[in-house]
Write a structure and sequence with these properties.
about 30% strand, 3-stranded antiparallel beta sheet, about 100 residues
Length: about 100
């Protein structure tokens, strides 16, 4: 088909194995003390999120269109306790120029 695709690296370039081990030991210590561990994460996206990659024949450009005037973001914040989702909140930002 003449299409190329890039391979992924499976480790983060700034990963630090020693810090990860220290963090895991702290979590284990808190659990042994009977403390509840709550994991919180935030993820967000633009309302009109253009894709930055695509497929094209080898030697040809991958062309797309972007709405440069698109406004707004949606962020989701969630909290997890053991296997229970405590909360999920949507934060909607509208950019005004």
């Amino acid at each position: 088909m003449g299409i190329s695709f890039k391979k992924k690296t499976l480790s983060h370039p700034r990963a630090d194995e020693e810090k990860r081990i220290v963090f895991q030991e702290q979590i284990k210590k808190y659990e042994e003390e009977g403390k509840e561990i709550v994991f919180i994460d935030e993820s967000g996206f633009a309302k009109d999120m253009p894709r930055k990659e695509g497929y094209a024949p080898i030697g040809h450009r991958c062309v797309g269109k972007i709405d440069w005037n698109a406004k707004g973001r949606i962020n989701v914040v969630g909290a997890l306790l053991k296997s229970t989702l405590l909360t999920a909140s949507l934060l909607i930002y509208v950019l005004v120029r």
